[in-house]
Amino acid sequence: MKRRTYLTTTTATAVGLAFAGCMSDEADEDDPGDVDGEDDDYEDEEDDTEETETEQEEEEDEDDEATSDIFGTFDDFENLEPWMAFQDIGSVEADSDQYYEGSQCARLEPDEEEGQVRIRRSLDEPIDVRDAVPGLAVASDERGMVRIQLQDEDGDYVEYSQQVMNDVSLTRVNFGLTRIRGDPDLSEIHVLQIIRWFGDDASGRMWVDDFHFVPNTDTGKVMLQFHGGYESHYTEAMPILREYDLPATTFVPTDRLRADVAVQGDRLTYDQVGELADAGWTIGSQSAQGVHLGRVSSNEMESNVTNPIDWLEEEGYEDGARFFAYPGSEYTQESYDLVEENYDLAFAGQAESQGYAANPYLCSLVADPDPDEAVNLLEWTAQNGGITSLAFYELEDEGSIAAVEEAAARLDQLVEQGDLEVITPQEMADEYVYTD
């Protein structure tokens, strides 16, 4: 039985986009979206002397309705005529051997000299994406980063990214906002572009389907996570978060926990897990052994993924038994299928500021940020909205501990200012999952 929680979609309020540059990806000097020029900011003009409150409310309702129309599948790639390889960089062809929606998908292959593929669709009518985040169903025979750009008529754009694994069937991926170029007018997006770098050898193929949009959040949301069940999460992280009264989640490899402190090792003891739970932490699963699931044999996969549920429920952590973190953010088809069947929410990825989860089994995170990166990610999310999960592993040096300290201090300030909200996996599963 699949245990899933869905949200009846509500319209998110608009979130401003002001940062320029790249948060987590290198600059692309040859990017066709890098077009110089100026663009007027979008602003709603108000005339307080003539417009009544009722009229304002009616206009707001109309704006909300217009934006919400975009949510769900936007392009199912049944017709590839609108799509073209930009400047012949790579190729795009129909492929009916697999698909997520309809009867075919688009197969993308890189240009041998460029080592990449770029396909774009120019829209007949511009779309308003101020409250929306794009996504794709993706499959690939090479692991790598996929990017989506939404460009205005001047070529300014917002870019969303996500890492995809190889040899997994077409499935929706949650993209996060990682770059803003120029001053894009999000109420008038004219071009959709999909980009994938394959490297110097230019080997590999990628399949895409179901270009969709999900709502963005009205206020930025942040989740604090600790992966691996390390004792340092108890000795170092818990006192820091307790000082600021911040909730967190620990994803533990249940078979590697220690009976007590007399047992040698660097993992949490059973009593320490209990104290974390008493302090308001969610106790979730990172598989029984906590090793990358690509290294687990097929005959051990099911027990590795599902046995922690029984342990968590027996120990009184029923709420956390709903949630899973893929070790190292890596997954295989077999492990993904098991997680989908047995959990409500799971985390893997490499992007900040994702929108509502179109796929709750591949929620995004940012792993082991350093102190400056952690603070920048929080400020980025406060400015641009979306959901950012900061995932910390073993806190074994001053830098990793400082990252938690500085993240907690800045997060406390931004929460106090009303610019961010801290959420738990349960709140994400119950409130921020989108279904068409």
Automatic annotation (TrEMBL):
Looking at the record's lineage, which domain of life comes first?
Archaea
Q: Name one Pfam family in it.
A: Polysacc_deac_1
A GO molecular-function descriptor: hydrolase activity, acting on carbon-nitrogen (but not peptide) bonds
CDD domains recorded for this chain? CE4_DAC_u1_6s
Q: This chain belongs to which protein, by name?
A: Polysaccharide deacetylase
List, for all copies, the residue spans of the domain called NodB homology. 220-423
Name its GO BP terms in alphabetical order. carbohydrate metabolic process
The subcellular location is: Secreted
Compositionally biased residues, Acidic residues? 25-67
